[in-house]
Design goal:
Layout: H1 4-18, H2 21-25, H3 27-32, H4 39-64, H5 70-78, H6 80-113, H7 117-134, H8 137-144, H9 146-164, H10 169-176, H11 186-210, H12 215-242, H13 253-261, H14 263-292, H15 298-315, H16 319-350
Helix pairs in contact: 1-11, 1-12, 4-11, 4-12, 4-16, 5-6, 5-16, 6-7, 6-11, 6-14, 6-15, 6-16, 7-14, 7-15, 9-12, 9-13, 9-14, 11-12, 11-16, 13-14, 14-15
């Protein structure tokens, strides 16, 4: 299985990147899986299988070429000209993700404490920009501790949701069909969900794989990351379906289920979600700024402040609306990266993959 500590590190980093505000709150999973009813659970199984494969493939590619950036791997698997498009896609999705995280901060504050959305979004923007500009590693490590806390809360809330539901299957199917949808049907929903998430996860998987000493570690790190993400997905999708009759119009369904169980559990869940929002926002805003400007310079700091202000302005569109529009849009574009990753992995296996000079 390779170096066990390294395997855990790769798996944890992948899960930490994917589990942002949309995942942790349940809003993404509600739109792409729960809203389709029981068949949405089958959709989540398709997504899990794809996550496991893609995480394994991208980690392997990074390890093979000891890559310190996603750029050379993207150009190798996509080709020189398509590589330009995919590189730009990854870069600007980082910015779009920052917009969604900031909106998520506003929705969290409003649902948990009744604070106007504007102030929650301002708080996330200011904290994110400060952390990125200061590059305080201890703070980022501390925020990262929210991932295991969130996993624990998901397990607790899921068990309670399953044991406490009273509605019958037909009523739950009917209730699920009224929830907002991020795709036209359950198969497309499952594919889109993987597609836009792998755009966010690809740079981190490639870099983490590149730091691995051997291929087995990179492969198993990717596989374990996909499995852990899949288990969290199944628990959230299943528990939301079990309580679909009370989730209409709720921006953060998992927070509602936690608060219904106990106000204290709701606050702990809220803290975990806030940690994941900040974790993802810091990661993606740093990635976006670092792709365009040299980290540590005054230009980088000024550019980060400007990007933060623009992201805040974009967040005013609203969390639910952004999840339902931004993610599907990038998801359709992300199919290119998914196909290139499959072809690139096959070429790696056959020994025909070569790095090419990036444009």
């Amino acid at each position: 299985m390779g170096n066990f500590k390294e395997v855990i590190r790769i798996a944890g980093a992948f899960v930490g990147v994917i589990v942002g505000a949309g995942f942790a709150s349940g809003q993404e999973l509600m739109q792409f899986f729960t809203s389709f009813g029981l068949i949405g659970l089958a959709g989540s199984m398709i997504s899990i299988a794809l996550f496991i494969f893609l995480a394994m493939a991208l980690s392997s590619l990074g390890q093979q070429y000891t890559s310190s950036s996603h750029k050379p791997i993207v150009y190798a698997i996509c080709g020189k000209y398509l590589g330009i498009f995919v590189d730009a896609l990854i870069t600007f999705f980082m910015f779009a993700l920052a917009v969604v995280m900031i909106a998520g901060g506003g929705a969290l504050g409003e649902q948990l404490f009744g604070i106007p959305k504007l102030w929650g979004s301002v708080a996330v923007t200011v904290l994110t920009v400060l952390i990125v500009c200061m590059n305080v590693r201890q703070v980022i490590t501390f925020i990262g501790a929210a991932t295991p806390l969130l996993a624990l809360m998901v397990i607790i809330v899921s068990v309670v949701a399953f044991s406490g539901h009273e509605a019958d299957l037909h009523a739950l199917e009917a209730a699920a069909s009224t929830l907002p949808r991020g795709a036209g049907n359950w198969v497309i929903g499952a594919l889109l969900y993987v597609s836009y998430n792998i755009i966010a996860g690809a740079p981190f998987l490639i870099i983490m794989g590149g730091q691995s000493l051997d291929r087995k570690t990179a492969v198993w790190g990717g596989v374990l990351g996909g499995v852990l993400l899949g288990l969290l997905m199944l628990m959230i999708v299943g528990s939301m379906f079990a309580r679909a009759d009370i989730l209409a119009g709720v921006p953060m369904p998992m927070l509602l289920l936690a608060t219904q169980f106990s106000p204290f559990v709701g606050i702990v869940m809220g803290v975990a979600i806030f940690g994941m929002i900040l974790n993802t926002a810091v990661g993606v805003l740093y990635s976006f700024s670092a792709r365009l400007l040299e980290p540590g310079t005054m230009k980088f700091r000024l550019g980060t402040v400007a990007a933060g202000i623009l992201a805040f302005a974009g967040s005013l569109a609203g969390f639910v609306q952004l999840v339902g529009t931004v993610f599907p849009f990038f998801g359709y574009l992300g199919f290119v990266l998914m196909i290139c990753t499959l072809v690139g992995w096959l070429r790696l296996r056959s020994g025909t993959l070569r790095l090419i000079e990036a444009a």
